[in-house]
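Please decode residue identities from the backbone states below.
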């Protein structure tokens, strides 16, 4: 975890930021490990760098949706950073655009 400053949300420690990075095509095991990490972490701000993801397809959208669901359940404030334009468009279509 690295220190950062962000606007406060009730019950969320935004003084700490957990930084994740996804690169290439996310494998189910990789996403499962990241979800387990989110489950174990105290609620806070999570920034997930997704600029290195492969082509935008349903597997990528599924991985990001799983991370979002886990983060929300655990009380994290999740944001994705570095999305390619193609992925941005798909995420907007499926209702995950607010995370960019």
């Amino acid at each position: 975890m690295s220190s950062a400053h962000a606007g406060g949300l009730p019950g969320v420690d935004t003084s700490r930021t957990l930084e994740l990075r996804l690169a290439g095509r996310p494998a189910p095991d990789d996403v499962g490990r990241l979800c387990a990490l989110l489950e174990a972490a105290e609620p806070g701000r999570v920034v997930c760098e997704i600029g290195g993801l492969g082509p935008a397809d349903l597997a990528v959208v599924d991985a990001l949706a799983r991370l979002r669901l886990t983060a929300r359940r655990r009380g994290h404030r999740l944001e994705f950073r570095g999305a390619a334009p193609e992925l941005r468009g798909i995420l907007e279509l499926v209702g995950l655009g607010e995370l960019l």
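Observation: The helical segments are 28-40, 58-74, 85-93.
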